[in-house]
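Before the break, one more example. Copy the sequence into your notebook; we will annotate it together after we see the structure.
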Amino acid sequence: MVSTSRSGCTYVRRYICNRYNLIDSGSWLKNNSYDDIELEEWIGWPHVLKVLIHYIPLQERKGVLCDFDRIWLWRGDTVRQFLSQITRLKTGVNHVYDDKDIPIIGDKTLVAERSQFDKFMLRQKEFWDLYYELGFPKNDPLIRFEDFVENPKKVCKMLEDWFYMEFSCGPELNDQALPIKIDIDYSTKYVNYEEVLEWFGE
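Here is what the structure looks like once it is written out:
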């Protein structure tokens, strides 16, 4: 699963793995070289591997992505996606599975930096450049995160219409918990929220 969003990808990936009894190989590429993937036990079973573009060296991206079936995941609300990523960096909390672990964020305590925005936009561009070069010509599935949250069963039916019914033949696995979706009003948490909107041209 090639994604522009960490938290969104985790939610979608876990849901699909639970629905089709797939192994969740998570963020393996974040800490490992793709050259070593054949050594992993899960490679022999149907699985979903999360791919964020910056996990793969620039010169290897097209080669790596051509090696497996791809689902492309994007988020329509890029402002919220950006602030969600910065909030995770500021709080050190990536995913929450229990209400008691939801971070407490005071009003007007966070600041987004322009350099963080520039890096975010570069990664967005890299994602879409690769999608239009590799995914679009092959008619790869392209999922909007907000559509998945609204109706995950409908999106999964769309994926089945591609080729993913074959995934139901994996080993017996226990369901993995889905992250809690946290609703944060970023306009009250960020000192420079209006400036961020200007960066996005809103």
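Residues 2-199 form a domain with the Rossmann fold fold (CATH 3.40.50). The first strand starts at residue 2 and ends at 3. Try to locate both features in your own notes.
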